[in-house]
Amino acid sequence: MLFDSLDYTHERRVRLIGHQLHDFAKSWWLTTKKALEHRGTVITWKIFKTEFYQRFFPVSYRKDKGVEFANLKQGNLNIEEYVPKFSTLPHFAPHVADNDEVVDDQFINGLNPDIFTLVNTGRPNNFDDALKRAKGTEAGLNRQK
Fold this sequence. Notes:
Order of helices and strands: HHHHHHHHHH
Strand content: under 5%
Number of helices: 10
Shape: elongated
Helix content: over 70%
Number of strands: 0
Largest sheet: none
Low-confidence stretches: none
Radius of gyration: 18 Å
Number of domains: 2
């Protein structure tokens, strides 16, 4: 989210993260980066994230988080509580996280039924549109109570 708001390119993200890592993570990245470059791999943001998650999050953890993401529902959370929980999980399911349409649909489908119906009626264009509609819908429903 920070990178998006600062409008960082993917190349710049990789460079910045490389400078932010410390100790073991820094050593790991320098070694991994050399190995990737030696193989002729262009180090994209996607490549970095894949390598990072593979190294620092066990497969079982990533699978559990992927399942949690697939099953996440708003439940008793308000939109402001649901969004951060929702936003952290796609990182552990890269096959989902790289497809904006799937992520958007998962967000919408996880909304409470009343909010889902009103948000989905106009079929939002993207996540930001869906979030804006969800917040507005929730505020309207709260005013009616």
